[in-house]
């Protein structure tokens, strides 16, 4: 006879007795090992390995995406009793099985089967199920998922945010049309693009966000935190993501970052994954500005469920189709960049090989005459890279743009920084097109 399936019950009210009795019947093949009063108890029991399947009430307080992910992380499958509490929402949380209808009916019909099926299901840990009905797309929008571009780089302010912002602007087609220049007022051109969807810029730098400030969204509530909160509750769809991401220039949306670094736990991996998944529906490109640190919290390694300080950066890198690494073009910056590229290969998540390595603020005063050649030579020698994107220094242009609260594409489209980054954007467009139309 098969072993008994161990069950953690976190069921509210009178239904608990019903469930526990039904599961305790001899021959049921199940045994309730813990009766948990709340989510905290449930997570503790799961972490202690006390059960294989959790049976939870649909309205259990604190039951969110993160909870389900943590149960999965402990190897526990989740069966939820909807009992009129939104089966769709429960599926969107990543619950393995949702029993619709009243508890009494569920206990009579499907509960035992559901538990046995859940226990026999494919092993965990797996990626939490991405449930939920597919979200509606804007009319006429292509159904190919948009691409996620993570912009990352070492510490020392090499220009991650600058590159992320200008890249997003360039991908959105912002920039000069020949012969016309912006003079006073917002005056922006948008070149023709094949994908009508917007470009979304996400500030996921949980150490020092700055995009709201740079785009003059001064008193904006952090859109990313709100989007993550909705994702955690299984309530984030394309429309709600769009509501959190104001359009700051034609074709360019921004999801602003945390206003205080201490709020970093508000961007857990399990939620950011969903935000990026929805972003792929909303936007042709989602450019994610990240923080520098990528190490896992060693002290917490024994507790795989503890929130990780660097989860936002690691998630962005792991989910990215394109990784753009940014370093600074001075001796210290280049040394950090070379080490950063190694660090990326050894990161605790699998990160795609960089699509582009950008060496920013290239100038003679930092690396000597012929700065571009010097930078290329250094990168070839120390990093074995003969293909780097060299971005010149333009302090006046960037300071002016910062002061004006705009991208260079809008404020100083003639800047050589913008031109260099526009070439990078062209490279990403080409990569996306190659994926969209495989060789025939
Ligand atoms: N190519 C460049 N030329 C001149 N200044 C730059 C350039 N790139 C970045 N900067 C400036 O350097 C500072 C730090 O850039 P930022 O993008 O915020 O770095 P990070 O996001 O890596 O911390 C900003 O004041 C920015 O305007
Ligand atoms: Mg930054």
TrEMBL record:
Keyword NAD on entry: no
Classification via InterPro entries: P-loop_NTPase, ParA/MinD_ATPase
Molecular function via GO: ATP binding; ATP hydrolysis activity
Region annotation (Disordered) ranges: 123-144
GO biological process terms, semicolon-separated: negative regulation of cell division
Keywords assigned: ATP-binding, Nucleotide-binding
Domain of life (superkingdom): Bacteria
One of the record's GO cellular component terms: cytosol
Protein name: MinD-like ATPase involved in chromosome partitioning or flagellar assembly
Taxonomic source organism: Xylanimonas cellulosilytica (strain DSM 15894 / JCM 12276 / CECT 5975 / KCTC 9989 / LMG 20990 / NBRC 107835 / XIL07)
